[in-house]
Amino acid sequence: MGYILRQIFGCFFWVTVVNIILYGLPIPKVIRKCKQKAYMINSNNRFEYQQASDCSGYSTAYVFRHLGIDIDGPSAYKQILFKLWRGSVSGMGIILLCLKYKVKVLLRIGNIEALKDSVCKGIPVLVFTRTVVGSRWLHYITVVGFDEEFIYTADSLKENTNSENALYNRKIPVSDFKKIWMTSKIYQPLMFNLFFEMKR
Questions:
Q1: Are 155 and 49 in contact (CB under 8 A)?
Q2: If we measure between CA atoms, which residue out of 67, 70, 71 comes closest to residue 199?
Q3: d(Cα 87, Cα 14) in Å, to the nearest integer?
Q4: Alpha carbon 68 to chain centroid distance?
Q5: 130 with 180: CB under 8 angstroms?
Q6: Spatial CB neighbours of 90, under 8 Å, sequence gap ≥ 6
Q7: pLDDT at residue 8 is higher than 80
Q8: Chain CA centroid to CA 27, Å
Q9: pLDDT (tens digit, 9 = 90+) per residue, 157-193?
C-alpha cells in the first residue's frame, strides 16, 4: 500500500512540476468580497476574431492595446513561444511575450471575487477558460467588466459572441463563467481559475 501511495504522489509531483514549467507558478489571490458590485472598463479598443487556435495572441493583443501597445492578434500569436499541440499556447508563452514588450505580468489562481477585484484596477484581465460549458476545449478570453449577473468579455471566437456593444462582445452568466473557468484535468490538477494581471 505504501509503495502505491508513493507512486501516486510521485506522479502527481512530476505532473505538477511540468505544469509549472509550461504555465508558470500561479500566485494565489482570494478575496471574500469585491468592493464593487459592478464595473466596466471603458476602453477605445477593437474586437478581432481568430482564424485557428490562436486565441492566446488575440486576447493578449487586446490587453496590450489597452496598455498603449499597437499590436494585432496574428502578430502577437506569431511571437508567442511554447506552442503546444494544435497551436495551443501555455501560460509561460504569454508570460514571455509580456516580458518581451516590458509588460509586468502576474499569473494568478483565485476566486471570482479576486478576478472582479483585478478588473476594477481598470485593465482587462486575460483568463484561461473552456470555450463553453461542457466543452473540453480550452480558450483564452479577456474580461472587461462584471455585475451581479454577468461577466463581460472580449472574446476572439466569433461563434461565442452574443452582444453588440462597443465595450464587450460576450456576456456570460456568472454561474456559467465559474463552470468554464474550471479547467483542471487529470494531467493538470492545479490548473484552474487562472488569470493574468498585466500592467506597464
A1: no
A2: 67
A3: 24
A4: 20
A5: yes
A6: 22, 23, 82, 84
A7: no
A8: 14
A9: 999 999 999 999 999 999 999 999 998 665 555 678 9
CB 192 within 8 A of CB 109: yes
| pTM (two decimals) | 0.88
Grid cell in block for residue 199:
500592467
Other CB atoms within 10 A of residue 192 CB: 15
Question: Cα angle at 171 between 67 and 151, to 5 degrees?
Answer: 65
- Select from 161, 144, 128 the least CA-distant residue to 65: 144
Nearest to 124 by CA among 179, 53, 195: 195
SS3 assignment, position 195 = strand
CATH homologous superfamily of 2-199:
Cysteine proteinases (3.90.70.10)
> What b/e string do you get for 103-130 counting C-beta neighbours within 10 Å, with b at 16 or more?
bebbbbbbbbebbbbbbbeebbbbbbbb
Distance CA 117, CA 137 (A): 27
